[in-house]
Backbone:
């Protein structure tokens, strides 16, 4: 079967149309195949051979549809439907019910994405005039082949049933195609949202996503009563990596540290790139004393690790600032406190873990004023 979703460049409406018409043309091919023995049985071979031609047209339409030639395939089938109806009615009369298939063009006309409203209006009136003209012709001219009324009734009821089944079939696939397109659209929205929340270099959460996660953790903390810890980490002397070894090396160091932090944090914790060479971590249901021990182990492990880039070995250290929070209202102050604890660690030698509870409010205020 033709995979009609391989061209992502197509608009979802085009995808739906290709999907539905693919099955519609297959159904039309099957129906016309069934008419061939019917007309041979009725002794009208010319109509049997007409349906052989119709099968060829539907096969061609399937190929064109698979190649995204939507207008050509639709026009071809539309002409086939009207031509087939006209010739069959000409030969055996209106009472056979073959005219009814022309009505299938109306939903096709309004569903086709290539047409504007003016074209649809013209098409609708054209189909209506054709239908009325065909009826007028049969009212004023006798059919070429006179069939018994009983046979005509059977044909009429049979065609009516096939037509209603066709409408049900098309409605089902319209619905299915719409559902598939909506799922694909939702997946696209989710992908876009993930990209908007992901740092392009490290593939960690970005600042926006970390802010949202802080709110989520704060909600849990307000329910459980357990604190959470905000951690801000900064790569020490990062400017040296960029200035002496190039920005590729700087990017390598940032990505390597990102992987180390993500690997060493607990599964329930959140890690993100806060900006530049800074990272943020959030540890939920954790007191600051416990968080400090965990972070101290991470700091020590990273400081002892060698990072190889283009044949050079690099040692990297980080300074961490921690603060403890218990609700959403304390988040902003908690970020400031963790940042000030980080600055203190930088001034006192770097490669350290500092907690905000060791920093007095007066010192925090002084640090914020001095930058």
Residues:
């Amino acid at each position: 079967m033709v995979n009609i979703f391989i061209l992502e460049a197509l608009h979802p409406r085009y995808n739906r149309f290709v999907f539905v018409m693919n099955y519609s043309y297959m159904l039309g091919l099957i129906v016309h195949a069934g008419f061939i023995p019917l007309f041979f049985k009725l002794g009208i071979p010319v109509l049997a051979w007409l349906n052989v031609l119709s099968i060829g047209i539907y096969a061609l339409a399937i190929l064109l549809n698979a190649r995204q030639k939507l207008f050509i395939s639709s026009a071809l089938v539309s002409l086939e439907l009207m031509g087939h109806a006209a010739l069959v009615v000409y030969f055996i009369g209106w009472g056979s019910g073959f005219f009814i298939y022309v009505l299938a063009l109306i939903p096709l006309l309004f569903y086709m994405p290539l047409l504007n409203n003016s074209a649809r209006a013209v098409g609708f009136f054209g189909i209506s005039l054709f239908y009325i003209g065909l009826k007028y012709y049969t009212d004023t001219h006798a059919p070429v082949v006179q069939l018994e009324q009983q046979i005509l009734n059977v044909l009429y009821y049979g065609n009516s049933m096939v037509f209603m089944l066709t409408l049900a079939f098309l409605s089902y696939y319209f619905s299915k195609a719409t559902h598939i397109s909506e799922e694909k659209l939702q997946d696209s929205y989710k992908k876009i949202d993930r990209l908007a929340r992901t740092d392009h270099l490290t593939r960690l959460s970005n600042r926006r996503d970390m802010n949202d996660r802080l709110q989520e953790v704060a909600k849990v903390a307000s329910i459980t009563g357990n604190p959470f810890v905000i951690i801000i980490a900064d790569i020490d002397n990062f400017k040296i990596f960029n200035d002496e070894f190039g920005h590729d090396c700087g990017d390598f160091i940032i990505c390597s540290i990102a992987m180390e932090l993500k690997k060493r944090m607990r599964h329930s914790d959140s890690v993100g790139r806060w900006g530049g060479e800074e990272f943020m971590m959030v540890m939920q249901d954790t007191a600051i004393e416990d968080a400090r021990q965990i972070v101290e182990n991470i700091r020590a492990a990273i400081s002892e690790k060698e990072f190889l880039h283009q044949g050079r070995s690099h040692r990297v250290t980080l300074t961490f600032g921690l603060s403890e929070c218990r609700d959403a209202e304390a988040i902003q102050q908690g970020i400031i406190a963790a940042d000030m604890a980080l600055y203190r660690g930088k001034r006192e030698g770097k490669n350290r873990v500092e907690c905000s509870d060791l920093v007095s409010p007066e010192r925090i205020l002084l640090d914020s004023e001095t930058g």
